[in-house]
Design goal:
This protein is an alpha/beta fold. Helix content is 22%, strand content 28%. It has a single domain, classed as Class I glutamine amidotransferase (GATase) domain (Rossmann fold), CATH 3.40.50. The protein has helices at 15-19, 31-40, 44-52, 62-67, 181-193; strands spanning 24-26, 57-60, 68-72, 84-89, 100-107, 124-131, 136-140, 145-149, 159-164, 167-170. It is globular and about 45 Å long. 41% of the residues are buried. The structure holds glutamine. Residues 28-31, 61-62, 65, 90-91, 132-133 line the site of glutamine (GLN).
Length: 194
């Protein structure tokens, strides 16, 4: 997805690999496993520092949880990198069997400028949302721009995409579709942050 948008993609598992990138994608998976691995590989402080220094980051699903300042239904002791002033609820739509797909109206998706400020209206674009034991966003701070909500079906009205400065997060998994626009938006944001 990143390469389809003109970026070079490399895996980041260790602090030295983090030092080499201009932006970080935290994919879906399992936030509790990411927490344990990031601790074991001493990634917590370096990632938090890069985020505080303005490194763009995009988290989908478990990655959204990792970028949240607060998590509901976390396991005891579970930590996140944080950065986005929001409260997310893990597994909010239900169990694995409650996973679903459906259309999402995503604000700013087709805009030319990925770095527009939080007040910009952007353009509405529809994309196919893949939700797998997904979180939703319960609450956002004033600096957070809500870029998508569920419009029909389970969790109607819930916030499923946000943006705060150079940080963005989605409850769903664009990386599991053939539509590169969300990653394209992130790549434009990384270029704008240079
Ligand atoms: N439920 C998972 C978690 O809590 C996220 C699932 C996903 O990334 N698809 O981390």
């Amino acid at each position: 997805m990143l390469e389809a948008s003109g970026a070079r993609a490399v895996p980041v598992r260790r602090p030295a690999e983090l030092d080499a990138v201009e932006g970080l994608v935290i994919p879906g998976g399992e936030s509790t496993a990411m927490w344990k691995l990031a601790s074991a590989f001493d990634l917590f402080e370096p990632v938090r520092k890069r985020i505080a220094d303005g490194m763009p980051a995009y988290g989908s699903c478990a990655g959204m949880i990792m970028l949240a300042d607060r998590v509901l239904d976390a396991v005891p002791g579970q930590e996140t990198f944080g950065g986005i002033a929001m409260t997310v609820r893990r597994n909010a739509f239900g169990r694995q069997i409650d996973s679903f797909e459906g259309p999402i109206a995503f604000d700013g998706l087709d805009g030319e400028d990925g770095a527009e400020d939080a007040d910009s209206a952007g353009t509405a674009g529809t994309l196919h949302g893949v939700f797998i034991r997904a979180p939703w966003v319960e609450e956002v701070g004033p600096a957070v721009r809500v870029t998508a909500r569920v419009t029909a079906g389970p969790g109607t009205g819930r916030i499923v995409a946000v943006r705060q400065g150079a940080l963005m997060a989605t409850s769903f998994h664009p990386e599991l579709t053939r539509d590169p626009r969300v990653h394209g938006l992130f790549v434009r944001l990384v270029r704008a942050a240079r």
